[in-house]
Design goal:
With 203 residues, this protein is an alpha/beta fold. It contains nine helices and seven strands. The radius of gyration is 17 Å and the shape is globular. The N and C termini lie far apart (34 Å). The C terminus is likely disordered.
C-alpha cells in the first residue's frame, strides 16, 4: 500500500509567519490560486477538521469524499497562536519554551511528545484499517506538524522531527510494505501540488 501524507496550502498566517496551531484559518486567496489537482483520485481523503486542510483536499481531489479525523488537527500552541515570534520574543513563557528546545508545553498548549502520541495513534489506526481492508492507497491531508510527528517516528530514511515539515501543498509518497513487520514507511518521493510559475512553464 502507498500512503500520501500531504500538507495544506498557504494561509495568511503562513505568509505572515504566525503560529497557526488549531486556529481555524482558511486558505488565503493566493494560497488557493497556487493549488492544482493532484492528478489522481482516491476513494476517500482523510482530513484534519481544520478548514485549511479540508479546502486543500477539495482542490487536490475535486469531488472526493472526505472523512474528518479529529486527532489529525495541528498541534495546539496555546497562547502563542496567532502571534509572530517578534511579538513574543521577550515573553518569559516563550523564552522558556525555546530554552527547552520547544519540547515543553506552551501556555494552555500541547507538549510535542503529547502531540506526537496523539497524531501518530490516529495515523497508525488509519494505516491498520486500510491494510485490513486490502486498500492500495491511503491519502491524508493535514498539517506540517502531523508530517513531522509521523515521519520522525515511522519514516525511512531516519531524520529529525523538524526536518520532516514539507512546504505548503507538499508532502510525501510512502511505501507501507514493511508496516506490519516493523512499523516503518519508506519514502518513495516528495510531492508538490502547486501550479508551475511562469518561468517554469516556459522551460
Amino acid at each position: 500500500m502507498q500512503i500520501y501524507l500531504l500538507r495544506h496550502g498557504q494561509t495568511e498566517y503562513n505568509a505572515q509567519h504566525r503560529y497557526q496551531g488549531q486556529q481555524n484559518i482558511p486558505l488565503s486567496a493566493a494560497g488557493r490560486a497556487q493549488l492544482r489537482p493532484a492528478g489522481f483520485m482516491p476513494d476517500v481523503a482523510y482530513v484534519s477538521p481544520l478548514i485549511r486542510a479540508r479546502q486543500t483536499a477539495e482542490i487536490f481531489f475535486p469531488g472526493c469524499p472526505q472523512i474528518i479525523v479529529q486527532d489529525l488537527r495541528e498541534m495546539c500552541f496555546g497562547s502563542f497562536e496567532g502571534r509572530h515570534y517578534i511579538h513574543i520574543e521577550h515573553d518569559p513563557d516563550y523564552l522558556a519554551w525555546l530554552e527547552a528546545n520547544k519540547t515543553a508545553a506552551r501556555p494552555d498548549g500541547e507538549r510535542i511528545q503529547d502531540f506526537c502520541n496523539r497524531s501518530c495513534a490516529a495515523f497508525a489506526k488509519l494505516v491498520e484499517e486500510s491494510l485490513a481492508q486490502h486498500k492500495q492507497q491511503l491519502v491524508i491531508v493535514a498539517h506540517g506538524g502531523i508530517q513531522m510527528a509521523v515521519m520522525s517516528r515511522y519514516g525511512l530514511p531516519r531524520r529529525d522531527y523538524h526536518d520532516w515539515c514539507g512546504p505548503n501543498a507538499g508532502g510525501y509518497r510512502l511505501d507501507a510494505a514493511n508496516w506490519q513487520t516493523d512499523h516503518t514507511l519508506q519514502l518513495l518521493e516528495t510531492v508538490q501540488y502547486t501550479k508551475a510559475t511562469q518561468s517554469e512553464a516556459a522551460l
